[in-house]
Amino acid sequence: MRSRSLIALAVAGTMLTACDGLKEALTAHVDVVARAGSQELSVTRLGDLLGNAKIQVPVTRDNAAIVADIWTGYQQIAYAAAHGDSLNDKKAIDKALAPIFNMGRLQRFMDSVSKTFKVDSATESAYNQASGGLLAARHILIGYKNPSVPPSSVEKDSLRKKADQVRAQVTPANFADMVKKYSTDPTAAQNNGNLGVFAKGTMIAAFSNATATLKPGEISQPIETQYGFHIIQRLPYADAQKDFAAQYAQAATRIADSAYMAQTEATSGLQVKDDAAPTIKTAAKDFTKHRSDKTTLATFKGGELTVADFLGWVEATPPNQQIMQRIPQAPDSVLKPFVKQIALQQILLKRADSAHIDIPAAEKANMYTEISQLVGNVWQALRVDPKMLADSAKSTAEKERLAASRVDTDLDRMLAGQTQPMSIPLPLKKMLDAKYESSVNPAGIDRAVERAQKVRASADSARAAAQPRTQLPIPGMGAPGGSPPAGAQPQPAQPQPAQPQPTKPNPTKKP
Known about the structure:
The chain has helices at 2-12, 20-27, 43-51, 61-82, 90-114, 124-128, 153-169, 175-182, 188-191, 205-212, 237-268, 276-285, 307-315, 320-326, 332-354, 361-382, 386-392, 396-415, 426-435, 442-466; strands at residues 32-36, 39-42, 134-143, 194-199, 223-225, 228-234, 271-272, 296-300, 303-306, 438-440. By secondary structure, the chain is α+β, with helices and mostly antiparallel strands. The protein has a domain at 124-245: Roll (Chitinase A, domain 3). Strands 4-3-6-5 form a four-stranded antiparallel β-sheet, sandwiched between helices. Strands 2-1-10 form a three-stranded antiparallel β-sheet. Strands 7-8-9 form a three-stranded antiparallel β-sheet. It is globular and about 90 Å long.
């Protein structure tokens, strides 16, 4: 569609009056990475910041984009401070917090739905049948010396014989004593071999399957796993009753919840668009520009899921930044079901609307207060609080310049490791994006990365060249400092790294 419009413009001779977006694309300065208000972040500046960073920041495009995003947020809030804008507009706050409010309303709705579930009680019969896939056991481990390496036949035969001998002595009455005497499980000293209640799938298959074949109170013959030989007792109901009741209620609720979601999907007419995956990949690469994108990703009875809706749900789900970064590289086979899950949340939100579920006024008031406090805290951290600026600057233009200068200084200190890295919290950044202009130039990011790589390589070379060489003692030549034999090259002394202490795995949990 754009190509047709450009052809029409060329034929009509009106290329000089093209739209602002096209003009900006054609005239963008390749030496500029980002803009915020009247401030610019140059390729040289970002390249030097990243290349000379004292903190361990790999020179990658993603990291360059993160630093550029931090810079734009800093400059935006500095500009607001220079103009005395405390960002306390409730309508703007409501819009920025809408995804969080929606998540809260959805949670309240699902809590109300959960109360309608009819869940069986955690009876002894349910325990005996391992309902909910829940088991409870304790064990004695006769373990291999090194579980990460397959044991020799000699070691395996020796431990099998020992396990058989121990099993011949074990009874329900002396099980705890036998754990203390023989078990090599590193957790045995704390729990006497008792693993409590666990879901079957969380343990090593051989261990779980063996436990499932036992009746409550029964003790197994030695069972081999990669860790050695286990003598397992499935706990009697009386020993696991309290823990089982708590976990059973949770498991039963999850099962009922899954059934409710399946029924919701089956009756909603939910259809995910074929191009949903590539569409959200594009949006995730520059999500700030797609927060109002009405492109349809999925349809259902009575509504649809748009790109804007999708991004809102993702931004309200921690860790939102990590999810956004992973989307562009994720396969379509993963993203399409992900879109379906988000669409189901949108369907349930419609039900919450019908049920008049809302965030209590007092809770909203607290959020308004928190936003106000957040603005003040960020101003203080960046040293751009309006009162601070007024001490050194009089006119608005002077305050803008001072605030921008302090932001640049803070960014230097952050990448030098002198202050803790800090980005503008997402709700606040959304408010700033809606009110104050900013942009990031992808071509500028690429050039900044190229420069940063050269700067980093040059700095690494300089450090290597400046590193003092220490002569090591050579047999027969006396102490260091003596003259080496002709032609011998002194070698730099190598620091000895601390040896990490190995951690011992739980020999029943899945590795």
